[in-house]
Amino acid sequence: MWSISMREIKLVYFAWVRERVGLSEERVSVPDEVLTVADLAGWLQTRGEEYAYAFENPAIVRAALDRKHVKPDALIAGASEIAFFPPMTGG
Amino acid sequence: MTTPRLIIRIQPEPFDAAAEIEALSRMGDDVGAVTSFTGYCRSEGGRLAALELEHYPGMAEEEIASVVVEASTRWSLLGATVIHRHGKMVPGDGIVLVATASSHRTASFDAAHFIMDYLKTRAPFWKKEHRADGTSGDWVEAKAVDDALAERWKA
After folding, report:
1. Is residue A2 part of a domain?
2. What pLDDT score was predicted for residue B136?
């Protein structure tokens, strides 16, 4: 017996990441083997050409877990909202 | 040491920098110095008609608050006001105001500089260009120099 276990997470996108994905937010079911922010970006890349375009250079896409900046190796377990966005250009 | 009065606002409306500076200077008899920085939308030599600022609601306030609180632990501040606008702005419009009050000039100068440098790299805002020829422009790219300027304060 085996089963695929999934978790539902809210994803939010900003600036050109939002434009490329074509959504400002969505709820997705993420497979259990997706452990880190980098894993999640890699998994999103496989979800269609919009995602492949948004995450074509994952090194420049930043992330926040529950509104806190994190590095790509951060574990996503327990996060309820994960944001992806380009480097910030405010001020 | 008294707790500094910290005001952080994220808003689409314009701000009155002179009124904000005046309010900081009037907050107590020990205010001896107020430093302010205002960042404006510019046309890049006539190339741009406007800038549109997108932000991450909630996180923008929290990140700016944590930068201001960190500044208040490093310098002896009596107060600080940070206002950052979002939405569409035309050349000449103020985008961001950072103002700090202290008893002596060094604290207010350095804290305002620190807050601005950190805000550039940590506050979740993004600028999109609207070109003067009516076409949709690009997203402004982050500059490596901004990261370097923020890093400098870690020494």
Report:
1. no
2. 85
The model scores a pTM over 0.80: yes
For residue A7, name the pLDDT band (cuts at 50, 70, 90): confident
CATH number where A77 lies:
3.10.20.30
Q: Which domain holds residue A53?
A: 7-85
Say which of A15, A64, A68 has its CB closest to residue B54.
Answer: A15
Q: What percent of chain B shows pLDDT beyond 90?
A: 86
CA distance A13 to chain B (A): 9
**Residue A5 pLDDT:** 64
- The pLDDT of residue B144: 85
Q: How many domains are there within chain A?
A: 1
Domains in chain B, CATH or no CATH each? 5-154 (3.90.1170.40)
The chain B residues in contact with chain A (CB within 8 A) are 39, 53-56, 58-60, 62-63, 84, 95-96, 116, 119-128, 139-142
Q: Do A69 and B39 touch (CB under 8 A)?
A: no
Query: CA–CA separation, B100 vs B109, rounded Å?
Result: 8
Q: Let me know if residue A91 belongs to a domain.
A: no
